[in-house]
Protein: Iron-containing alcohol dehydrogenase
Amino acid sequence: MLDFEFYNPTKIVFGKDKIEKLNDLIDKDARVLILYGGGSIKKFGTLDKVKEALKGREIFEFPGIEPNPKYETLMKAVEVVKKENINFLLAVGGGSVMDGTKFVNLAANYEGEDKTDLLKYGFTPVPVSKGLPIGTVVTLPATGSEMNGGSVISYDGGKFSVRSPLSFPKFSILDPTLTYTLPKTQVANGVVDTFIHVLEQYATYPVDARFQDRTAEGILKTLIEIGRKTIDDPTDYDARANLVWCATMGLNGLIAAGVPQDWTTHKIGHELTAIYGIDHAKTLATILPALWEVRRKEKGAKLVQYAERVWDIKEGSDDEKIDLAISKTREFFEILDMPTHLSKYGLTKDDVDTVVDSLERHGMTNLSETGDLGLDISRKVIEKAL
Ligand code: NZQ
Ligand code: ZN
Structure:
């Protein structure tokens, strides 16, 4: 096992009707800014419940955080934070709203003049030393943003990771019933995004991290069991509750501790979202199988383990096991109505240069668990994903 530090201060409040707990979780004299997206929380009554729970406090609203939240939108929220002397940020929504709220907090407290500086640090924590407390009410299980210190912000044709220990929410309310109103395609996004978060922390090379591996395999197997079921039957509480908890545990640092990680699928996926507007999870479903085909040698031992333990493939040579595991993975995504080829989104070989150029422009030239994946290999992966 590799050395690691593990830090996670987020309190989770899980279950039906837990929005009521906001009254205990946020100080009575707080000036709260509620940040949200394009209106789903208004339409489905979540905003009213939040306001009811916060009665007696000074409440302000910032609507309109779009999917793949934009820097320019978030900077408008920074103005509200300053003007209204806000001292608590409450994100109510999916990954975009939670990420956006984290960025608003950092930008409001960053001392430098140009806040786009914050987009340049990648996985290194940004130089911000104080921030407001953040809480979240999660309406879309997918990103794990509710229990991690990361965020992804869109700016000038790119998507940028912004990390800080200050971005961990103080608490997150996970009420699976708040997610019942999601369109089927967003539920599928949640299943696939979670599945691939786990795999980016798992399908690398073995370091004898048994707890992390078996926890990762447990999440993967759970998603295979409940994935289609929770799309078809959105109000099956237990199926949805399992998805919600898997999404949170899939990217809160637990299974990342002490293991190599390979975020190549996400990095290429972010370029595809930035250029073509394809949903985050949908980009991943096309890239991951292609990456494995290209990198089957480097990832061989873990892919065999994945085949045996997640898909119960016990027969055949290692190569045959890997082949079958890749095709079962594709099949799983396709069963969720998630295409595994970029051609389904209209991309052709003429698009490959555009994506590779964009990776280069954003410095994504040393990807993979060992940093050996240059643009030539990314090109092969994108070609395979077509
Ligand atoms: O904006 P509204 O009207 O609320 O509608 C949203 C949005 O259109 C809708 N929605 C959310 N909850 C709903 C609902 N509709 C009906 N009922 C509900 N209960 O869903 C749409 C998509 O929402 P969004 O927040 O964009 O989706 P998701 O949670 O998948 O977040 C994607 C973003 O997270 C980033 C992605 O890059 C992307 O920008 N990621 C963040 C990560 C992190 N912080 O650790 C890691 C991830 O890998 C990912 O990169
Ligand atoms: Zn993701």
Remarks:
- Residues 210-232 form the longest helix (23 residues).
- The chain is about 45% helix and 10% strand.
- The chain has a mean pLDDT of 98.
- Residues 143, 193, 197, 266, 280 surround zinc ion (ligand 2) (CB under 6 Å).
